[in-house]
Amino acid sequence: MTVNALYRDDFYLSTAEAMVTAIHEDGGIELDQTCFYATSGGQPGDTGFLERGDGSRIMLGQTKHGPIKDIIIHVPLEGEPLPIVGEKLVLHVDWPRRYKLMRMHTACHLLSVVCSYPITGAAVGEEESRVDFDMSETIDKDEVTARMMALVNENHPVFVQWITDEELIANPGIVKSKNVRPPMGLGRVSLVCIGEDSAVDSQPCGGTHVSETQEVGAIYIAKIEKKGKENRRFRIRFGTPADEN
């Protein structure tokens, strides 16, 4: 059943009411709507719990997509009880974890502004993220850190604009990733924009983000690894280079 993915329009929504629409044989739970982000585009799915009418909790280990993007499956931890179809629940996202991922995902976008090379891969993590670029040049990680922190401290707004699938197809140049398809197939595509009038950046992305760059906080490039003749992997961490010591 098609789900109303509430997080697409409100990244800061951490709780919501929903009704169970299906239970899979493996225990996966489908709901009529959800604020839980499903694993996609290098960002892990949300964890948290579903609160039942009697106040008991169903703890979730992951949130993932089904065979199509319109299906979102909430996967309980092993041994957790299962609700019944038609049961009403209150959803609670693990907000501290989600917020870290939001900050990190936005940091990855800032890195792609500083390093304007095609992206060949990425993975968002709670403490460290990586972005791979199609590049052969040597670049100083401290210089990259300084330029990223300048964007953080300038406190640019971060917001979403929506375009149609057809508009994206007609403007392929806005896609920075070489290997990952933008989130298409729902009739509209979200552009994550940074800066007034998207002056800093604009790129298709279905992940969750903070509302201004200042929220990212202190970040730095911990390492730049050579992964082939024309591939460089940048590792982003929270904190400062001094934390490495």
TrEMBL record:
Residues spanning the membrane: none
Its cellular-component GO annotations read: cytoplasm
Localized where? Cytoplasm
UniProt KW keywords: Hydrolase, Metal-binding, Zinc
| Any one GO molecular-function label of the UniProt entry | aminoacyl-tRNA deacylase activity
Per the record's keyword annotation, is S-adenosyl-L-methionine included, yes or no?
no
The protein here is known as Misacylated tRNA(Ala) deacylase
Q: Per the UniProt entry, what species is this protein from, by scientific name? A: Rhizobium lusitanum
